[in-house]
Amino acid sequence: MDSSELQKIAQHARGTREAGTAIIVASALLTVFLFIPLAPKALPTVPVAVSAGPDAFAEVPLQAEAAIVYDLATKQTLFEKNADAQLPLASLTKILTVYAALTTLSPETPITISAEAVRTEAPRAFNEGQVFSLADLARLTLTASLNDGAVAIAEAAAERQNRSQNAMLAGAALALNLSQTFAVNGSGLDVNASVSGSYGSARDLAVLAGALVAEVPRIAAATTASSARATSEGGTTFDVQNTDPMVGSLPRLLLSKTGYTELAGGNLALVFDVGIHHPIAIIVLGSTQKARFTDGTSLVAATLAHFAGLASL
Predict the structure, then answer these.
(1) Beta bridge partners of 183
(2) Are 93 and 184 in contact (CB under 8 A)?
(3) Mean pLDDT, range 214-219, rounded to an integer
(4) Quick one: which H or E segment has residue 271?
(5) What is the domain count for the chain?
(6) What are the phi and psi torsion angles at 71 (to 5°)?
(7) Is residue 21 part of a domain?
(8) What is the domain range of residue 209?
(9) What percentage of residues in the chain have a pLDDT greater than 70?
(10) 1 inside domain
(11) Mean pLDDT throughout 291-307?
(12) How far apart are CA 81 and CA 69, in angstroms?
């Protein structure tokens, strides 16, 4: 066999090997496409504006000891200052009290104002023996921060659970994984000059406020009006004023709750809709009685600027 024939055989062998390799590669690729499932389509999410601009929260002046801006739609923290510090809650406790009661009682459950409730500190509005549905009493209590209403609601929920009031409130906090929240009473009133009626963090309160809005939006919505009205089962009508003077000026508000005691200072909880079904919680703890409102409005403005991609409005 001469050299030219050997060369032809070698060329044929190389061609055969290359063709075989191509077939193997093609078969492997076909196997990948046939037997590896395609990735599932992502579920639709709430559209969130991503700001490539300056930090809208960089220059926000706050007197509060702690604060948070928490995106309830995406579970992201947009801004925080000592957000996990455990601080006195004052009347923000009433959000927990109402939420806890509604996990046990239906909104139509009749609640009787007790002798203990009418002996609590002001603000209060009721007389012993008056009866309201839980929903109506909750609306009045949250809007005007009524201590007698909060005590009556906490008593009824604790009795239904056959537990102490602080155990009932602790159960609700545990169910929401509020690791820094602890309540001695349902009103948030200071126990004495050194012990608050409840403690919690700005982060916990953001989650709690969001949960109340999600579970009972109509009750939460009552706190966004300048006043609330309800009638007892005996036919007595009550009109109460909102403790938050800003409710008429804040955009798309879903919840507003104030709190103030000597130990807590000025507290504020807000939930508002920054877009379609895109709630944002803003919590201010340890401010002053007046500055809690300027702190809150500053954080609302910064949040709106953040989603607009601006440094400020």
Answers:
(1) 198
(2) no
(3) 97
(4) strand 265-273
(5) 1
(6) -80, 105
(7) no
(8) 66-308
(9) 83
(10) no
(11) 97
(12) 9
